[in-house]
Amino acid sequence: MSRPPRRGPAASDRGRRGPFGALLRAVSTDGSAAGGLAAAYACMEPEGRRRLVDTVVADAAAEGVASGPALATLLSAERDPAVARHIFAAMGEAGQMQPVGPPTAMSTGDSKRGAAVVIRPLFGELVELVASSWTAEGVGEVRHEPLVGPAALDHALGRVEDAAALRPCSIDHALGLLAQVLWRHRRRHGSLPAGADRLGSFL
């Protein structure tokens, strides 16, 4: 007597494991992997993007990993409101709408000369980083790194001027310094420095 075909997770998931599953695992810790996924996603047509969202949810479940980091990465590249709502719905169903923690900050110096960094946790181990330094003459470029993994965080911080002097501070202190020096820069030069718009979601 022959046995019926085997059913269940091992059979149904077999086709989903592989390179894409490995990518889903990498997205939560590797900023370059997340950036690559976002870039590829942005080149697709709306219906293809919607299907990829569904694929991420299904494959993440098959791999036993959280879908939140990959969905957040796709959301960062989405400009179509309807598809964005589809991503939000998927994130809500997965219970992964909230970041893993509050923003943190570091600073050095004062409003005449100094630097500040604001780090916002996203999903998994990825963070968003905004940094700038300034002198009495004005603010340098405001540098924004939207997807930074743990392995790249120290390197990203090391590129900040006076990085060795940075010390943890309250988020209010760092944002207060940045608002003050940006306002002074605008009065002196007539416009904000490059990249200042990236601070809009923090200020």
State the end-to-end distance.
71 Å
> If you average the pLDDT, what whole number results?
82
The secondary structure category is alpha+beta
Shape: elongated
Cα Rg: 21 Å
Secondary-structure element string = HHHHHHEEEEEHEH
Helix tally equals 8
Low-confidence stretches: 1-16
Level of helix content? 40-55%
Mind describing the biggest β-sheet? 6 strands, antiparallel
Number of domains: 2
- Please give the number of β-strands: 6
Strand content is 15-25%
In short:
This protein has 203 residues and is of the alpha+beta class. Helix content is 46%, strand content 17%. The chain is elongated and about 55 Å long.
Task: Provide an overview of this structure.
It is a single chain. By secondary structure, the chain is α+β, with helices and mostly antiparallel strands. It has 2 domains: 9-93, no CATH class; 104-199. It contains 8 helices and 6 strands. Strands 1, 2, 3, 4, 5 and 6 form a 6-stranded antiparallel β-sheet that branches. β3 and β4 (138-139) form a beta hairpin. It is elongated and about 55 Å long. The N and C termini lie far apart (71 Å).
